[in-house]
Design a protein that fits this description.
Layout lengths: L2 H4 L4 H5 L2 E14 L2 E7 L1 H4 L7 E5 L8 E4 L2 E3 L2 E7 L3 H7 L6 E8 L12 E6 L4 H12 L5 E6 L8 H5 L3 E6 L6 E2 L2 H5 L6 E5 L2 H14 L3 E4 L15 E5 L5 E5 L6 E3 L7
The structure holds flavin-adenine dinucleotide and FE2/S2 (inorganic) cluster.
The site of FE2/S2 (inorganic) cluster (FES) has 12 residues, from loops.
Length: about 270
């Protein structure tokens, strides 16, 4: 091994995003439109923080990269869980082991893990559930007793339940009552006790969760979604209004300043 390769990795090298060619090691269909993809990505795995995302160059007719959250990290591999929405994610779902992906990452500010307290709760809705897995894993690793409340449309949309259950108490709700508890995640959240909330899902759900956390007087972080161009704060494609602590408004980027924000910063209208 040369001296150059053997030298210790610096903080900058870990925190600066890289563009890497990553080999797909597995693709699994979870349900009709939901897929799990595992890729070998040691340079990204060492950088990955809960709540961050990768920007994947998808082939076919797509030009811009597509943002997908990091669901889990194991050794030098990243696990992504995604829903087929259009051409980009359809292309991604058709990858096979051995295929190479051009991936930029890891991007964005993830969940702040300090201040979660002894009993953080992770509240996810639909395809907002995947990034919470790595976050819950990190909370548990730092000695907390985390819980999860995961909401889905119906039984066929339920994902990652056993992964969450392995990390702590996990309750599943479905809108139509076809699995778990009939109702919305907020119905359960208002009956539970917790020291902080981390949430990801549809904006209406995040807003309701943030209101409950505020009423309970606990800190709440929410992961927002916007359509993205560059993913690194250069194109203004993901601009969002944010509220300062003094109540004033400013603009931020979901890709660079988020996707995770303190719920008090978010302008919900
Ligand atoms: C930070 C971040 C993390 C994400 N993580 C995940 C994830 O872990 N799993 C997952 O399945 N999806 C995730 N998404 C959403 C995913 O990026 C989009 O579904 C994907 O880019 C759609 O690309 P497409 O080419 O398949 O569809 P397109 O043809 O680009 O779009 C198809 C439809 O999806 C809508 N759409 C596209 N992008 C978004 C977006 N960012 N937000 C809301 N609606 C969108 C379009 O308006 C259109 O109606 C994430 C998005 C962001 C911003
Ligand atoms: S996607 Fe370009 S600034 Fe956020």
């Amino acid at each position: 091994m040369t001296e150059e390769i053997a030298r210790p990795v610096t903080i900058d090298e870990i925190t600066c995003p890289v563009q890497a060619d990553c080999e797909v090691s597995a693709v699994k269909r979870l349900s009709e439109r939901l897929y799990e993809l595992v890729m070998t990505a040691p340079e990204l795995a060492v950088r990955a923080r809960p709540g961050q995302f990768v920007h994947v160059l998808c082939g076919g007719e797509t030009f811009l990269r597509r943002p997908i959250s990091i669901c889990d990290v194991s050794g030098g591999s990243l696990r992504l869980v995604f829903q087929v929405k259009g051409a980009g994610t359809a292309w991604l779902s058709e990858r096979a082991p051995g295929d190479m992906l051009d991936v930029l990452g890891t991007l964005g500010n993830g969940f702040r893990l300090s201040g979660l307290g002894a009993r953080p709760v992770f509240v996810g809705g639909g395809i907002g559930v995947p990034p919470l897995l790595l976050a819950m894993k990190a909370a548990r690793a730092q000695g907390a007793a985390p819980a999860a409340i995961l909401g889905f449309r119906s039984r066929s949309a339920v994902i990652l339940e056993s992964d969450f259950t392995a990390l702590g108490n996990t309750e599943v709700t479905t809108d139509d009552g076809s699995y778990g508890i009939h109702g919305f995640v907020t119905g359960l959240l208002e009956r539970r006790e917790y020291t902080s909330v981390c949430a990801c899902g549809p904006k209406g759900m995040l807003r309701a969760v943030a209101a409950l956390a505020e009423r309970a007087g606990v800190p709440c972080q929410v992961s927002l979604e916007e359509r993205m161009g560059c993913g690194i704060g250069a194109c203004l494609g993901c601009a969002c209004a944010l509220r300062d602590t003094d109540g004033g408004l400013r603009y931020g980027h979901v890709c660079k300043d988020g996707p995770v924000f303190d719920a008090k910063e978010v302008v919900w209208e």
